[in-house]
Structure formats: structure tokens, C-alpha cells
Design a protein that fits this description.
Strand content: 15-25%
Largest sheet: 7 strands, parallel
Number of strands: 14
CATH superfamily of the largest domain: Methylesterase CheB, C-terminal domain
Radius of gyration: 20 Å
Helix content: 25-40%
Structural class: alpha/beta
Distance between the termini: 52 Å
Strand order of the largest sheet: 8-9-7-6-12-13-14
Number of helices: 12
CATH topology of the largest domain: Rossmann fold
Order of helices and strands: EHEHEHEHEHHEHEHEEEEHEHEHEH
CATH architecture of the largest domain: 3-Layer(aba) Sandwich
Length: about 350
């Protein structure tokens, strides 16, 4: 028999604690070993119960979720999944929580009664199983990556000579912080990123990455001209495409077309659109995440652009799903640890750091 996953639920709402318990224990391999109504109570219970996974509400009295998370990091190796609200404040706090060590997050619907819906139930159970599989060895690797530091201002390139397309999902927000800030702002390239996140959360992520980086990081705007030295993050719930205008310039197009295999934004949609432009110098990067979004896009970039493909290696991934799908196609030109991805991008661009 496989081991039962013991979960500690931390939430100030008695209703939420009961709903989460019912959802989790509907799965044969998950058991709620305890529930705590605030952070102080949770810290005591962690020492007694030694849970395998912890779910943690961001908004709580007496000790908020971020403070509790930082204290948990000192006392337990159990991976933490945050429960956050779909608000601007919730987005910023969630990015901080992921940076502080949370493995992933689940958004609470605006109508709390919708938390027990089938789609949210499947998401919660899937993420708890994913968190349990996430080994301490991998977590330590990510935490030990060097912190980014913004270097001195350098003259930006005026000519767009290359596109770098990056796709990530679970574990991506933290992984992106170990890549984007290490790309020099004077490269003759633009970076386009698809990170699977809800609306609002992508803006908070862009702002955080911008504060760490020499390049300008922002959410992509519809019809915006793509410029070197910029990083464009696909806004949550929009597909981001690259199109060529009548003057031959590359622009961003945002659409609300149907989700691609459940994702909007989709890595496949971005990469396939780049392939259609026929742009000659493209680097595709696939990083940590569940599923196989990006696999078809990589195939298109290889066929149409003769592009270079870089994949994050298994050891440094939170979830080795998206990179594995690409590696299995045999199209990856480089499979490297997270902390080597930025250097590999610069190497293939042929510019000096």
C-alpha cells in the first residue's frame, strides 16, 4: 500500500477548515492529521503531528500567513501550499510567499461556497500529491541558488536580433527569479514569458521581477511593439502571441481564445505564434511545471525557426513535467540546472555578460 499523505490545514475560518478536510479526505491517499485556526496554534501542531504537507491561509489574525510561513520554514521540511484570495493584495502576498518558500498556491474563489466545486477539488488534491512528491533534496537545491543582484546600468541594444520564449508553471515564480535577473539588459533580444497564473498574480510577479532585474519586466500589452531589453509576461487569463505587422515589426497580441489544453495563457500558443513569424533567431526555454504545455510549441520552433531549446533538469525542478515532455522528444539542445539557464541563454546568444 502507498503511504497516506498527512496534511495540516491552517485557516481561521471553521467553514474552510471543514470544507478542506472533506475535499482532502475524499481522496483515498490523503488524511487531515490536524487543523489549526491561526499561525501560533499551527506551529505547536507541526511539532506534535509532523505533517507531510501543510495548507496555509494567507489572511489570518494574530499571525498572518506570511509570518507563519517564515516560522514554519525554521521548524519543518513539510512543503507548504498557500490559499490566497483573487485580489491585488492577495497576488502580491502570494508572490512573497512563493519567494519565502511556499511550493505552490490555490486561489480561493470570491464565493466561498464554490471552493467545494469539482474543479477546485481536483486542483487541491492534485497539488497536495505534487507537494508530497517534492523531495527535500530538490527544495534545498532551489533555496541555495544565489540571490539576484541588479548590476550597473549598461547601454541597451537598439536592434531586436533574437527572441527568448520561456514557459513555466508549478515552481515557476521562484525559478524565474533565478533566471530573469541574470540576463544582461544590453542583450539584443526580448524575452517573452508564459507562467501559468491567474489574473492579477502575473502583474505582481512582473513587478517583483522588474525590481530585481536590469531588463524592464512588465505584463505584455496588446499591440505593443517588442523591444530588446524587455521581458514581457503574459497576463493571467490571456493568450500572448507574437505577430508581424505590415512594416515587419514584431508586436504582442493578446487574445481570449479558448484555453489550450486547459491553459490560458499557454506556452504552446506563444511558441507556435513565434514559429509563424519565421523570425530567425529564437531560444525556447522550458522550466518546472506539471503537464506538457510547451511540447508542441518547441516542435514548431524547431521546424520553423531552427531554434535552440533549453530545458531545466529534473533535479532542480519542483515538478519535472513540462521539461520532461520536451526532453522526451529529443529536441532539447541543453538540459541544465536552474542556476545555469541564464548563462546558457547568454551563451547561445553569443554575447558577453
Amino acid at each position: 500500500m502507498s503511504k497516506t499523505i498527512g496534511v495540516l490545514v491552517i485557516d481561521d475560518s471553521a467553514f474552510m477548515r471543514k470544507v478542506l478536510r472533506d475535499i482532502m479526505e475524499s481522496a483515498h491517499d490523503i488524511k487531515v492529521v490536524g487543523t489549526a485556526k491561526n499561525g501560533l496554534e499551527a506551529l505547536e501542531m507541526v511539532r506534535e503531528l509532523h505533517p507531510d504537507v501543510i495548507t496555509l491561509d494567507l489572511n489570518m489574525p494574530s499571525m498572518d500567513g506570511l509570518t507563519c510561513l517564515r516560522e514554519l520554514q525554521k521548524t519543518t521540511d513539510a512543503p507548504v501550499i498557500m490559499l490566497s484570495s483573487l485580489t491585488v493584495e492577495g497576488g502580491k502576498a502570494t508572490i512573497e510567499a512563493l519567494e519565502a518558500g511556499a511550493i505552490d498556491f490555490v486561489t480561493k474563489p470570491s464565493n466561498m461556497f464554490e471552493i467545494s466545486g469539482e474543479q477546485k477539488k481536483v486542483e487541491i488534491i492534485k497539488k497536495i500529491r505534487m507537494a508530497y512528491r517534492f523531495s527535500k533534496k530538490k527544495r534545498t537545491f532551489v533555496e541555495n541558488c544565489p540571490k539576484a543582484a541588479v548590476t550597473e546600468q549598461r547601454q541597451r541594444s537598439s536592434e531586436l536580433k533574437a527572441l527568448i520564449a520561456i514557459g513555466s508553471s508549478t515552481g515557476g515564480p521562484r525559478a524565474l527569479q533565478e533566471v530573469i535577473p541574470y540576463i544582461p539588459e544590453d542583450i539584443p533580444a526580448a524575452v517573452l514569458v508564459v507562467q501559468h497564473m491567474p489574473p492579477g498574480f502575473t502583474r505582481s510577479l512582473a513587478e517583483r521581477l522588474d525590481s530585481l532585474s536590469g531588463m524592464t519586466v512588465k505584463e505584455g500589452d496588446d499591440n505593443e511593439i517588442i523591444c530588446p531589453g524587455y521581458v514581457y509576461l503574459a497576463p493571467g487569463d490571456f493568450h500572448m502571441e507574437v505577430v508581424k505587422d505590415q512594416d515587419g515589426r514584431l508586436r504582442i497580441r493578446l487574445t481570449k481564445n479558448e484555453p489550450e489544453k486547459g491553459h490560458r495563457p499557454s506556452v504552446n500558443v506563444l511558441m507556435k505564434s513565434i514559429a509563424k513569424t519565421g523570425f530567425p533567431n529564437v531560444i525556447g526555454v522550458i522550466m518546472t511545471g506539471m503537464g506538457n504545455d510547451g511540447k508542441e510549441g518547441v516542435i514548431s520552433i524547431k521546424e520553423k525557426n531552427k531554434g535552440v531549446i533549453i530545458c531545466q533538469d529534473e533535479m532542480s525542478c519542483v515538478v519535472y513535467g513540462m521539461p520532461k515532455a520536451v526532453v522526451n522528444t529529443g529536441l532539447a539542445d541543453a538540459i541544465v540546472p536552474l542556476k545555469e539557464i541564464a548563462g546558457m541563454i547568454v551563451k547561445y546568444l553569443g554575447v558577453e555578460q
